[in-house]
Design a protein that fits this description.
Helix content is 9%, strand content 35%. It has three helices and 25 strands. A hairpin with a 5-residue loop joins strand 9 and strand 10. It is mainly beta. The strands form seven sheets. Strands 1, 6, 7, 9, 10 and 11 form a six-stranded antiparallel β-sheet that branches. A six-stranded mixed β-sheet has the order 15-16-23-19-18-20. The chain folds into two domains: 105 residues, Immunoglobulins (Immunoglobulin-like, Sandwich), CATH 2.60.40.10; 185 residues, no CATH class.
């Protein structure tokens, strides 16, 4: 069913009621707040008995849309001409009390058969908790509205990016990936204490951990996928890994073929920046048939390991050859444990550049290069 046309407005700073623009025209009506308050010149007639929505159901939730339905008493049901929907981000108890609150979203839609689709990336963000309440309304011949009481308040959470959305991000990342450079190793920087702990408590094997919340807010791997973070970018003039790192002065290096080969699958995970000129691409390497592989197969676009714009693995004259994109910083997540005996650990000679760390880094929502037309 085609989604009804919904109008989106900001709340008035001087009135307890929010202004709703119908069909984006200059003609306006005003809604009572959830407590029933309204201004004397609100244009809404005195309350008459209209059915109050109850038993609200939210379904078909995506990162920027949902379907809503409810039950109503049959009395005066035929008088309903419009629905008023009050949509708000659920307040975070840990949020900054001095920060401006998100402006509530008031939507008005013509009465259509339920369930009704609510869609709009300008007011719905992925992975975000919302509250919603509904009124029924009847438009009078003089333009005034008769409204019901507000329904109960329902809570729901929007979804992650789908494969369709991630494919859009993938295509944008391909545009700026640049030419391919050779690589021979993957590497992981940490503090000395990290490697000492791995040897003492994990039998020399680095263990996967849950990915942090860096990158796109709608990424389906943040806070869910378990893996080990590796880098693979090389310096243009040396063809070797850079000597600086934001993650620690000790580096584990492992031959590329031990992590990335025909027995692994490669997935695109994210594309983002942190208010900087350079961009990051997250890739996931998962051994075929592993739990990580099954997780990614359901959620992420899969890449051809021999032919893609970011990281390739191919055989030339009986030898595996590897290339990486020059113009993006690749963050590679390997989904299985990795034994330290498969590589070497040594101290780097460069600096620890903490300012370049992407730990829990937030994506720049205004960047036109790495954002798509859904919630950030």
């Amino acid at each position: 069913m085609e989604a009804p046309r919904l109008a989106h407005t900001m709340s008035s700073p001087t009135s307890p009621c929010e202004e709703v623009i119908k069909n984006l025209s200059l003609e306006a009506i005003q809604l009572c707040d959830r407590d029933g308050n309204k201004s004397q010149d609100s244009g809404i007639a005195e309350m008459e008995e209209l059915p109050v929505p109850h038993n609200i159901k939210i379904s078909n939730i995506t990162c920027d849309s949902f379907k809503i339905s409810w039950e109503m008493d049959s009395k005066s049901k035929d008088r309903i001409t419009h629905y008023f929907i009050d949509l708000n981000k659920k307040e975070n108890k840990n949020s900054n009390k001095f920060k401006h609150k998100d402006v509530p979203t008031k939507l008005v839609a013509k009465a259509v058969p339920l369930p009704m689709t609510v869609r709009g990336h300008w007011f719905l963000s992925p992975r975000t908790e919302y509250t919603v309440a509904v009124q029924t309304a009847s438009k009078q011949v003089d333009g005034d509205y008769v409204v019901s009481e507000w329904s109960e308040i329902i809570e729901f959470c929007t979804a992650d990016y789908s494969k369709v959305h991630l494919t859009q991000l993938l295509e944008k990342a391909e545009v700026i990936a640049g030419r391919m450079l050779k690589l021979s190793v993957f590497y992981r920087n940490q503090h000395k204490e990290y490697f000492d702990y791995i040897r003492e408590h994990h039998g020399n094997a680095m263990q996967p951990s849950v990915k942090d919340n860096s990158g796109s807010h709608g990424s389906p791997i943040s806070g869910k996928l378990e893996g080990i973070f590796f880098s693979c970018n090389t310096e243009f003039n040396t063809g070797k890994p850079p000597q600086d790192s934001p993650y620690g002065r000790y580096r584990f290096e492992i031959a590329a073929e031990k992590l990335f080969n025909p027995n692994t699958n490669l997935y695109f995970g994210d594309f983002y920046c942190m208010y900087t000129a350079y961009h990051y691409v997250i890739l996931v390497i998962a051994p075929v048939g592993s739990p990580g592989d099954e997780f990614c197969k359901q959620r992420l676009p899969q890449l051809n390991i021999k032919d893609n714009k970011f990281l390739t693995c191919d055989e030339e004259d009986g030898v595996m050859v590897y290339h990486h994109a020059q113009d993006v910083i690749l963050e590679v997540i390997y989904t299985d444990p990795v034994d330290l005996s498969l590589g070497t650990v040594a101290e780097i000679t460069g600096h620890q550049l903490m300012s370049l760390s992407t730990a829990n880094a937030k994506k720049d929502p205004s960047c036109k290069t790495c954002n798509i037309s859904v919630g950030r």
